[in-house]
Amino acid sequence: MKFFTQDSECVQVVDEPVNVPAIIDELTSQLSTEEPFYVMNIDDIVRKHQNWIEKMPRVVPHYAVKCNDIEVVCATLAALGASFDCASKGEISKILGLGVSPDRIIFANPMKPSSHLRYASANNVYTMTFDSDVELHKIRKFCPDAKLVLRIRCDDEKAQCPLGKKFGCDPVEEAPRLIKIARSLNLDVVGISFHVGSGCADFPIYYKAISHAKDLFNYAKSFGYEFNLLDIGGGFPGDIGTSIDEVAMIVNKALDQFFPDKSVRVIAEPGRYYVASAFTLITNVQSKRICLNNKTGDIERMMYYLNDGVYASFNSILYDHQKPKPVLIGQQSGKTYKSTIWGPTCDALDQLIETIMLPELEIDDWVMFENMGAYTIAAASPFNGFVLPKVFCYMSKNTWEIMENLSALTEVCCNSSGAELVINYENVVCA
Predict the structure, then answer these.
(1) What region holds the Orn/DAP/Arg decarboxylase 2 N-terminal domain (predicted)?
(2) What residues in the chain have per-residue pLDDT under 70?
């Protein structure tokens, strides 16, 4: 199992629990103000995994790689024993490259290019979703040994990112027809999946979706199928201050009622749950414009231009409907002004916050954004030639020891003083 191998990401092992504010203070005093950067707290991801296992012990997490695909994230979760939700041959290749077994991957894109199906089949990734008859015929042609999971639609209308308009068949009208077609094609359907929407806000919808799945398990028996897999998708919260306690209670109750037989394997596809709070983005004020009232000469609005924007980390504003909340780093105080925050590019679309009340900021002031791990890095681009943020990764020695006991860690990291650490199963020694 490879672990922490990207050259751009040096993992720092610190003696105490990871203190993100203290790390940020140290880095902002040392680094150039020209480029934004992330601080990644690996301890946070490990805690999230432990919490998941405690709250939903029956549900095997398959991390949604699309949410944040950097190698440190994926390798950490692989070492912890999580499985993976991949949406393309590129994501499958990335996860297989970490040494993950193909049976720990679900190809959870209902619409798959033929070449991606061929790649999955050639690499023994057989569990995959579908929601149409056309997809069934394509799968039969390119991956006839697939273990198929029928994706049904059961939407949370309040979800941050609804998905039902694009994926999922009606559980009452369409799903039975597709089960019949799959049987006629002699394809192996093994279960039901659903996704209530990314960033779910109506947790009881999981109960409704699980009840629909049970009806289809029963219906499939009349065609000789014995379904054994239930995929409850994603939608789990991951920001600082959020909890999965409520959704876990609802899911566990529904599983006890509708799927008491433990021979049915239950999985989920959490993404933002694992990574949202683990990443903090630190940006810098690169430019500033003071807008005056033409009649009074008073300051009407401040406009600040940061070194990261919607074409990079803040693509989450466009694609994930995020509303970033800036935290100032410094001693800014006094009168506040209506302020607009922009990204660095030449496009007027590159607006982070239209109006916010802030004290006056100066060039080179640092501005921090928490909860920036989900749907940020994965879709960022270097538009206009602006470099993407570096990622500085930290883990405590205690977490390191936990990880060391889980998998053979044989790569090189750094400790907080910058000295290289040779990582092995026996101990951590300075090199």
Answers:
(1) 43-276
(2) 1-10, 156-166, 197-201, 407-431
- If asked whether residues 193 and 130 sit together in one domain, one would say yes
Q: Which two tokens stand for residue 16?
A: 């105490």
Coil, strand or helix: which one is 323?
coil
Tens digit of each residue's pLDDT (9 = 90 or more) over 65-110: 999 999 999 999 999 999 999 999 999 999 999 999 999 999 999 9
- Interhelix angle for 71-80 vs 89-96, to 10°? 60
Tokens 């290019």 locate to 113
Show the domain range for 48.
Answer: 42-274
- With respect to residue 159, please indicate whether it lies within any of the assigned structural domains: yes
- Point out the catalytic residue in the list 67, 74, 291, 346: 346
Residue 77 lies in a domain: yes
CA distance linking residue 255 with residue 249, whole number of Å = 10
* 86 annotated active-site: no
Please tell me the total number of residues recorded for the chain in this structure: 431
Radius of gyration, CA atoms only, the chain:
24
